[in-house]
Specification:
By secondary structure, this protein is α/β, with parallel strands linked by helices. The protein has one domain. The protein has a two-stranded parallel ribbon with strand order 1-4. The protein has a two-stranded parallel sheet with strand order 2-3. The longest helix is centred in the middle third of the chain and has 21 residues. The two termini are about 25 Å apart.
Length: about 180
């Protein structure tokens, strides 16, 4: 469905209840929405390194979320650092109305599919065949940040400075095949 139009997919879901209960309030972490944006940006950085991609990347987010302003501010902080900007091939970022952007609608569908699959896995159910067919194990990133990972990251983030916190987003993408390869969390 989406594979012919994209080189790589990135999708992240989290246990919202665990995030709200366990993640301390911190300017660099922000809301669950902003936290997920951090993880996606870390995923892009990992992909850039692994694939040796040399082009420019524009980060596109769905407009209208209540945490959009917070995510915008954190994006500005991240990409004010020349090393991060260069390493992640940053060209720009924007927030678009998905109603007017079919690619954003496709990304929204991928996010919903990922969330639904992770929820099914937490319930002990088997992977859906449509989800298995959607993602490519060698290229795509589908990550679920569960309670254990939220607690680990919260503990680490409270002890480090801003530059380290930004880089720490990559932590979760070491487990990129949580679902893609069939191994659940």
């Amino acid at each position: 469905m989406l594979a012919p139009t994209a080189d790589v997919f990135f999708s992240v879901s989290l246990d919202l209840k665990a995030f709200e209960e366990c993640m301390p309030k911190h300017d660099l972490i922000g809301s669950a929405y902003t936290f997920c944006a951090h993880v996606i940006i870390g995923g892009v950085a990992t992909w850039v390194q692994q694939s040796q991609y040399n082009g420019s990347i524009s980060y596109i987010f769905e407009a209208g979320h209540s945490s959009q302003g917070e995510a915008e501010e954190i994006m500005r902080k991240i990409f004010a650092n020349p090393d991060l900007k260069s390493g992640q091939r940053y060209a720009s970022h924007t927030f678009v109305d998905k109603v007017k952007s079919p690619p954003t609608q496709a990304a929204d569908l991928l996010s919903w599919q990922t969330y639904t699959e992770f929820r099914r896995r937490l319930e002990g159910r088997e992977q859906r065949k449509d989800f298995a067919a959607l993602l490519r194990p060698q290229t795509d990133f589908a990550v679920f940040v569960d309670r254990r990972r939220i607690i680990e990251l919260a503990a680490k983030w409270m002890k480090i400075d801003e530059a380290e916190a930004i880089a720490l987003s990559r932590l979760h993408l070491g487990d990129r095949n949580d679902l893609v390869g069939g191994a659940g969390t």
